[in-house]
Design a protein that fits this description.
Strand 3 and strand 4 form a beta hairpin. It is globular, with a radius of gyration of 41 Å. It is 71% helix and 7% strand. The protein is of the alpha+beta class and 382 residues long.
């Protein structure tokens, strides 16, 4: 059974961002193939003021902060793939370009929010208003409005998957989910173990967006007012409330187990099949590097810590010292052996010298004996 770790993440351009409490890390695969890791801290309003940590309100705060951070890390990852003109800029020119990029990012965020409200909120509303004569029941129109919103969202996601860069982004999204699943399922965080995991996860932003649309159906079915402009305004003003409720729901589902939890979670996890894909080994390596930068998964799993880099260096130094000591001992033994051989050789030489010195005397004695014997023989014959 998977354990709740509290880790969250996001796919970025050629990389993965992982967040654990107030720390987050972005691991990006650079054009040269190396992984660049940037680790930072993010202080939430929920930590500074208790009022922002109240249920539903904390969901709104988290959504806004996650959206802002997400745009920031996407821009950071994109900076590694900027064109050659920017690379040749001076520092002053780069600062001006970064300032322009920041302004552009804010404008894009505002435009994205306006488009999202227009496509996913107002378009279904006006579509149902156009069918007012055909469908007089406001409750039924509210329900169909929500269904149409879900259909538009699914069609939108399906459409953007045709873009090649989005396909790669969704693969990194899959690497993010599989890595977190690996940690929460109690397995060592290795490429091989991660590959065995599912690309689905209950705390995914895709599931959150689906819950937003489903909760909005329940709201707009029962909030019935006469004026069209007021109904339209309420749909916009209630977005933060719906987002807050959806956050509480997905947070509960992500930290609990059971058949009911499984059933409620399934639609969102089915939808994730559109926003995630099977990653390759290099993408998984980015996700693993990002987790390792902000989360001690071995402590979370109750496993002993691996030797630190300093301990590894000490072990290497000790091993080197042992090798050097063995080498010195071998050299000493070799020298001692050579000395003993030399001593034995010198002794043999001395004995040989003494033998050579005694040889003339021995030869003379032998000659004397021989002559004496011959003389005796001669005397006897005569």
């Amino acid at each position: 059974m998977a354990r709740y770790s509290g880790i969250g993440g996001q796919a970025v351009i050629e990389g993965v961002m992982m967040k654990n409490k107030s720390e987050y890390a972005v691991a990006v695969r650079k054009p040269d193939g190396q992984i660049e890791i940037k680790k930072s801290k993010s202080t939430s309003l929920r930590d500074k003021h208790k009022g922002f940590d109240i249920p539903i309100i904390r969901g709104v705060v988290t959504f806004i902060e996650s959206f802002t951070m997400g745009m920031g890390v996407l821009n950071y990852s994109a900076s590694f793939y900027e064109d050659d003109e920017k690379k040749d800029m001076t520092e002053e020119q780069k600062k001006k370009a970064e300032k322009k990029d920041s302004i552009l990012t804010v404008l894009i965020m505002i435009l994205a929010i306006i488009l999202a409200i227009g496509i996913f909120v107002l378009a279904p509303f006006f579509a149902m208003e156009a069918l007012k004569k055909v469908i007089p029941s406001e409750m039924l129109r509210g329900f169909l409005e929500g269904v149409l919103r879900v259909i538009i969202f699914i069609a939108y996601v399906k459409l953007i998957t045709l873009v090649e860069d989005i396909k790669r982004l969704f693969k990194y999204h899959g690497a993010e989910h599989k890595s977190i699943n690996c940690v929460e399922n109690g397995e060592d965080l290795t490429v091989e173990n991660v590959k065995k995991q599912s690309t689905e996860h209950r705390r995914c932003g895709t599931s959150f967006l689906l819950f937003v649309m489903v909760v909005s159906i329940l709201f707009f079915m029962f909030i019935i007012v006469g004026a069209v402009w007021l109904r339209m305004l309420l749909r916009i003003l209630l977005i933060p409330v719906i987002a807050g409720l959806s956050y509480e729901l997905i947070r509960f589902l992500g930290s609990h187990e059971g058949k009911v939890v499984y059933v409620i979670s399934r639609p969102g996890m089915w939808l994730q099949r559109l926003t995630t894909a099977e990653p390759d080994d290099e993408m998984i390596e980015c996700a693993i590097a990002s987790i390792n930068a902000v989360f001690d998964w071995r402590a979370f799993q109750g496993k002993p810590a691996l030797p630190t880099e300093m301990e590894d260096e000490d072990a290497d130094a000790q091993e080197t010292a042992d090798v050097q000591s063995d080498t010195v001992n071998e050299a000493d033994a070799s020298t001692e052996g050579e000395t003993q051989v030399a001593a034995r050789t010198e002794n043999d030489h001395l004995q040989a010298s003494e033998t050579e010195t005694d040889k003339p005397a021995q030869d003379m004695a032998a000659e004397f004996v021989t002559e004496e014997s011959v003389e005796d023989i001669i005397v006897e014959d005569f």
